[in-house]
Write a structure and sequence with these properties.
Chain A is built from eleven helices and 14 strands. By secondary structure, chain A is of the alpha/beta class. The radius of gyration of chain A is 19 Å and the shape is globular. Chain B contains eight helices and 19 strands. In chain B, a hairpin with a 2-residue loop joins strand 18 and strand 19. The chains are: A alpha/beta, B alpha+beta.
């Protein structure tokens, strides 16, 4: 089984799709010669040429709109929005156009576009270059939202996103790009809407996304040492949500922690907690714990940034609260 | 930053409370959950527990009436600064509101309902949804389960332990006391309240009157009612309630309350039934018993007693009683005297109905007999009217038609 970094896995999915399918192309700011600000598309210009690896002006709204137009015309564009924060600039096109057109045209139009974007703290990027805004987009009917946490998942899910006939907002985490992991020899598409159980456990289910999947696995390891058996589940797709897997895991363990890097307040985890309490109410033996960033713009200062965003220690503390060992 | 200690609202109708005394002094360390001060709210004096740990930095209100929500003290780190607060509430506001509150049902935590560690301030047992489901499925009374989860919550493990009949819980389970050693059962707030109120009741000058009644007809009546309407399951207690209700309205001086200014004669007979709930004695009230039919009384009684046993009584179920029936008949107690339930002026203690040999003219007969012992507040009721009341009670039991 080959080993790829998360970054290489993204590139592999893009390149493989572009090799087999002329309709697939990529566009974004500085993705061609520069290979993207995170180096994800490095080398792709040489292979595919500038027709299919398109640098765009610095206007997220324009590039998102162009991608949507191409998608409506039958292409399968993958637009890179350099930072998740800049999704706010593309929001008009993503939210008001891409998400709505299939519905408003009575199915006459489809918009098979992918908006790849990345964010995340841990490298002192400050308040405007590291937000986790997935909660903005899971709230929009008409969009699918993916947030992969491993090389295998990011490759298999990006593949499915490219070939989905609906607009997909595809979140990557900045600090995961160098993460290495085994991937299947051939790309195995991972269905959108299916969670992954990373680790089985008996006492507490931690439902985590993005970087927090890894923090949660670390916390689970530590909890194990204290006699607490932790199950770690990554929904991978935030919209649609694999409620069945999450609920059945919690029905088994009777306790749940929801963990993400985005601010806790009104976060994606709030929706997960609501789903769990409703569908597994009589199985819950403790209040559902939520772990996320403090309600603050992200500080530049590394020590402050570290304070604001959650890590394994916060997940572990939440795990312990659910079993009454806090 | 120092944490403010706020005067808590112990029930919906509560607008203010009177701080009786502080159990901690300034500068003393305080644990979260430790009793901090005694708060009087007309009906009960309750200890208010600290919601934060630290040092009691400042007592802003040493004693007296305080509106709900006012800061009365600060807890924080030693040497920490404390903001200024107005010393006491403007008296005008504080004294007006409680009057209005009188009309609303008070929902102070019924002290009898607390008991198990997991009960919160409103008498509700704190348990996880899973624990509740398990208890429901397995027929376990959560009121009798001790919670070991966060904040004393009953969790699934506690229910399973209770079902297995094991020790209450590791932290709570006292190791088997070595023979001869005194076991200390710490006083719960409920216990303290009961102790205080009963001690108060004991100071009331009381007298007892006793009479025995032939229950032949009551038993026949109950049997016939059950036959006619098996779903309702009328009991002897229901007949007693009805009979007491009628007797109280005929002898209103017994359906009374003594106050310093006047004796209050209540307009209806609200009969309280002493019920052994899991956490201890509770006295839910059947209102206007004189106006209800036996079937209606049976339905109300079944609901109240059922909820009492499940610890689901509301505070207003326990309020407004004008008389109490305490029945220990099921325990083979021949007769006993009950302590008054102030401010009520009378209580009847009912022993077991048992076969006794009784003279019938020059013959003897064996009859089901019950002994009633009434305790009266002598300040409100004199011996003769009390005796007349008891006689009505006896006659009505021996010939229930008289109570109609």
């Amino acid at each position: 089984m080959p080993e790829l970094t998360y970054r290489e896995a993204v590139r592999d999915a893009l390149s493989t799709a572009m090799r087999q399918d002329d309709d697939v192309f990529i566009m974004g700011e500085d993705i061609a010669e520069m290979g993207g600000s995170m180096g994800v598309t490095a080398g792709m210009l040489e292979e595919f040429g500038k027709e299919r690896v398109r640098n765009t002006p610095i206007s997220e709204m324009a590039l998102a709109g162009a991608a949507i137009g191409a998608a409506m015309q039958g292409m399968r564009p993958v637009a890179e929005i350099m930072y998740e924060d800049f999704m706010t600039l593309a929001a008009e096109q993503v939210v008001n156009q891409a998400a709505k057109l299939r519905y408003m045209s009575g199915g006459q139009l489809t918009v098979p576009v992918v908006f790849r974007t990345q964010g995340g703290a841990g490298w002192s990027p400050g308040a405007q270059h590291a937000q986790q805004l997935e909660a903005w987009f899971v709230h929009i009917p008409g969009l699918k939202v993916v947030f992969a946490s491993t090389p295998e998942d990011v490759r298999g899910l990006l593949w499915s996103a490219i070939y989905d006939d609906n607009p997909v907002v595809f979140f990557e985490h900045r600090t995961l790009y160098p993460l290495k992991g085994d991937v299947p020899q051939e790309i195995e598409p991972i269905p959108i809407g299916r969670a992954r159980i990373h680790r089985e456990g008996e006492d507490v289910t931690v439902i985590a996304t993005g970087r927090l999947v890894h923090e949660s696995l670390e916390a689970a390891e530590e909890a194990e040492g204290e006699g607490i058996s932790v199950e770690v589940v990554d929904p991978r797709t935030l919209q649609p949500l694999d409620e069945e897997t999450l609920v059945s895991s919690v029905k088994k363990t009777n306790r749940a922690v929801v963990a993400h890097e985005a601010v806790t307040r009104m976060g994606f985890g709030a929706e997960v907690a609501a789903v769990l309490q409703y569908q597994a109410f009589d199985w819950l033996d403790a209040p559902i714990e939520r772990v996320g960033a403090k309600f603050s713009p992200l500080p530049f200062a590394p020590v402050m940034e570290n304070f604001v965003v959650p890590h394994a220690a916060e997940v572990l503390a939440a795990i312990k609260r659910t079993v009454g060992k806090a | 930053m120092a944490t403010e200690v706020i005067l808590p609202r112990l029930g919906q109708g509560m607008e203010s409370g009177t701080i009786v005394r502080w159990l901690k002094s300034e500068g003393e360390p305080v644990q979260k959950g430790e009793p901090l001060f005694e708060l009087d709210t007309d009906k009960v004096t309750q200890e208010v527990e600290a919601e934060a740990a630290g040092v009691l930095l400042k007592i802003a209100v040493p004693e007296g009436e305080v509106p709900v929500g006012q800061t009365v003290a600060f807890i924080g780190a030693e040497g920490e600064d404390v903001p200024d607060v107005p010393a006491a509430a403007p008296p005008a506001e504080a004294s007006e509101k409680p009057l209005q509150a009188e009309e609303e049902p008070r929902t102070e935590p019924a002290p009898q309902l607390e008991g198990a560690a997991a009960a919160d301030g409103n008498g509700r047992v704190k348990a996880s949804p899973l624990a509740r489901r398990l208890a429901r499925e397995r027929g376990i009374d959560l009121g009798a389960v001790r919670g070991t989860g966060p904040e004393g919550r009953i969790v699934a493990e506690d229910v399973e332990r209770a079902e297995a009949g094991g020790p209450a819980a590791p932290p709570a389970a006292p190791a088997l006391a070595p023979a001869g050693e005194v076991e200390r059962v710490p006083l719960s707030n409920v216990r303290r309240t009961i102790a205080r109120r009963l001690t108060e009741a004991w100071q009331i000058p009381v007298f007892q009157l006793q009479a025995s009644a032939d229950m032949t007809r009551v038993n026949a009546l109950v049997a016939r009612l059950r036959e006619r309407d098996p779903d309702v399951r009328t009991t002897v207690t229901d007949v007693l309630t009805k009979v007491c209700g009628q007797a109280l309205m005929r002898h209103r001086e017994v359906n009374a309350e003594f106050t310093e200014e006047a004796i209050l004669l209540h307009p209806s007979a609200n009969v309280g039934l002493a019920v052994a709930a899991p956490q201890g004695l509770v006295v839910p009230v059947i209102r206007s018993a004189e106006r209800l039919s036996l079937t209606e009384i049976a339905a109300v009684r079944a609901d109240l007693v059922g909820r009492a046993r499940e610890s689901k009584l509301r505070a207003d179920d326990l309020e407004g009683g004008t008389f109490t029936i305490s029945n220990l008949g099921m325990y083979a107690v021949e007769s006993f005297t009950a302590v008054l339930n102030p401010p009520q002026a009378a209580i009847v203690a009912v022993g077991a109905t048992e076969e006794r040999v009784v003279p019938m003219g020059s013959e003897t007969a064996v009859r089901p007999m019950v002994t009633l012992t009434c305790t009266f507040d002598h300040r409100a009721v004199d011996g003769a009217p009390a005796a007349a009341f008891l006689q009505t009670l006896k006659e009505s039991l021996e010939d229930p038609g008289l109570a109609l």
